[in-house]
């Protein structure tokens, strides 16, 4: 039986790309739309609960403010959840974890294969390069409409470096330096954010020591890469037992 995938927020830029990718790889059950509009011929449900009734799995790239409510709805419906929303808070994180006790969930900051390989490399670099000798800095740039900063992908890189160093990112993160900040402290992981134009996504992680610099860069050239990755992730997630999965589980490394 063909997997029926529902798309939360199908009228948005990502929603429309997801609809195209789902149609190519599975069956598009329908979607929800805050504006009441969607791609031609697509069934629009009045809310996520109604969409879950006609879907085997939900892909959700909506907004941080919807995460807690969507977690409750999909847990109650028993439908797997591929979440691509970023910028949510601690309460939403707890709601995702609670839902994952009842349904299979992936909440990834980025569904691009190359970025997830970069996360793995970043963790290895963090473990290999001493924090007191190699300063870690992350620079990201996105389109002018992006509402959260640093980006979820930038934070993913930071978490990877921190994991490699055996620390929590929240304890060493420095974002948006301004004014008389004093000298950089050993072990800090710095973030800088740029916004402009229609940049899909650009991230560079640099480790700089006194005599060398190592940089890891990823450029997303077309946001379709996120949609393709999310749909392939959905195909993998369907049939998995309840739990909170990562892209490492999907990609097998």
Question: Can you give me a brief rundown of this structure?
Answer:
This protein has nine helices and eleven strands. It has 253 residues and is an alpha/beta fold. Strand 4, helix 4 and strand 5 form a beta-alpha-beta unit.
Topology:
Layout: E1 4-8, H1 13-25, E2 27-31, H2 48-53, E3 57-60, H3 67-77, E4 81-83, H4 90-99, E5 104-107, H5 113-128, E6 135-142, H6 152-165, H7 169-172, E7 173-175, E8 189-195, E9 201-208, E10 213-220, H8 224-237, E11 243-245, H9 247-251
Parallel strand pairs: 1-2, 1-3, 3-4, 4-5, 5-11, 6-8, 7-8
Antiparallel strand pairs: 6-9, 9-10
Search tags:
11 strands, alpha/beta, 9 helices, Rossmann fold, 253 residues, five-stranded mixed β-sheet, Dihydrodipicolinate Reductase, domain 2
Descriptive notes:
This protein has 253 residues and is of the alpha/beta class. It has nine helices and eleven strands. It has two domains: 4-107 and 223-251, NAD(P)-binding Rossmann-like Domain (Rossmann fold); 113-220, Dihydrodipicolinate Reductase, domain 2, CATH 3.30.360. It has helices at residues 13-25, 48-53, 67-77, 90-99, 113-128, 152-165, 169-172, 224-237, 247-251, and strands at 4-8, 27-31, 57-60, 81-83, 104-107, 135-142, 173-175, 189-195, 201-208, 213-220, 243-245. It is elongated. 43% of the residues are buried. The model has no long low-confidence stretch (mean pLDDT 96).
